[in-house]
User: Which sequence fits this backbone?
């Protein structure tokens, strides 16, 4: 009997990988199936069982809850996850560039010592901003995948803001450093441009007539809260 | 395969695992995580539905059944496989292999 209790506790721990709503709905049932399928005297979940539950639990959390019928929304959500990945890469490149850029600038005395002293601050702020951007992508992917109409509107607003930001990135002068750094600087802009294109495609897909059917009207979303 | 298991009446989770194992001649042993992932998707796509719920040994047991759309999908899928198998057998006969 204690073997069974141990085993059940082990399975319950693994079920924690699933999203809470799914667990509430199916947890008892999955547990019953697991217990029915267990060998006599088994005290702990096997490695294969654990891997299977963790894998499908994580997948349930990550996958968008878009039915296959709403293909345009599904594609938009995938693009947004891609956007998050591109932004993360851009963040890493950007940070590396900033370190190189500031070092070069200090050596060439393009920047005063006081500015060089601010380096950690500038890097921290940029990193925080980059992380916020990645999180926004992920949040928008999730919320749009759940059919929230506000997410569709917010995505569009964010895209417009990103467009304004992109314009300023091209008009900023990069004259204080050498040729190498200038090339690197525009290299750093590439992920940003890619992310913008991805965003443009996602927003376009979100406003296709086929997507509109999937998004609940604002009235019914409010009624759910 | 899960749809096939539900073709001649409703089944509960563990019943489906046993059934799929039988249908596949013991080759396919579904794991609980995989099964419930698939059931969730099939439900979202409207191919299966919950037939009834029972409480056995203090645990909820849900019976799943095919929806009309699920039956149509299974029939279409079976016809496609039959056509593919028939084509393969015909060609083997023509080649004198059998």
Assistant:
């Amino acid at each position: 009997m204690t073997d069974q209790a141990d085993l059940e506790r082990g399975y319950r721990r693994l079920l924690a990988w699933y999203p809470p709503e799914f667990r509430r709905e199916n947890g008892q049932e999955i547990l019953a199936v697991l217990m029915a399928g267990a060998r006599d005297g088994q005290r702990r979940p096997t490695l294969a069982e654990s891997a299977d539950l963790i894998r499908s639990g994580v997948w349930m959390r990550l996958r968008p809850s878009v039915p296959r019928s709403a293909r345009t929304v599904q594609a938009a959500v995938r693009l947004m996850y891609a956007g998050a990945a591109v932004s993360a890469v851009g963040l890493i490149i950007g940070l590396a560039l900033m370190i190189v850029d500031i070092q070069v600038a200090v050596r060439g005395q393009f920047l005063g010592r006081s500015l060089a002293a601010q380096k950690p601050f500038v890097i921290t702020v940029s990193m925080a901003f980059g992380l916020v951007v990645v999180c926004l992508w992920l949040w928008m992917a999730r919320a749009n995948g759940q059919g929230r109409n506000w997410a569709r509107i917010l995505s569009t607003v964010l895209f417009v803001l990103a467009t304004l930001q992109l314009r300023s990135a091209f008009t900023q002068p990069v004259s204080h450093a050498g040729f190498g750094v200038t090339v690197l600087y525009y290299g750093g802009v590439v992920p940003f441009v890619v992310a913008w294109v991805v965003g443009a495609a996602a927003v376009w897909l979100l406003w296709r007539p086929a997507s509109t059917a999937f998004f609940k009207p604002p009235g019914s979303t409010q009624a759910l809260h | 395969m899960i749809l096939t298991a539900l073709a001649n009446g409703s089944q509960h989770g563990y019943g489906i695992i046993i059934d799929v194992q039988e249908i596949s001649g013991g080759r396919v042993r579904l794991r609980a995580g995989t099964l419930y992932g698939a059931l969730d998707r099939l439900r979202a796509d409207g191919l299966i539905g919950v037939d009834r719920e029972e409480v056995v040994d203090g645990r909820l047991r849900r019976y799943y059944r095919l929806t009309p759309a699920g039956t149509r999908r299974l029939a279409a899928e079976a016809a496609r496989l039959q056509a593919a198998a028939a084509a393969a057998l015909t060609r083997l006969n023509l080649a004198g292999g059998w």
Q: What stands out?
A: Residues 7 and 66 of chain B are 7 Å apart (CA to CA). Helices of chain B lie at 2-5, 13-23, 32-44, 68-94. Chain B is about 55% helix and 20% strand.
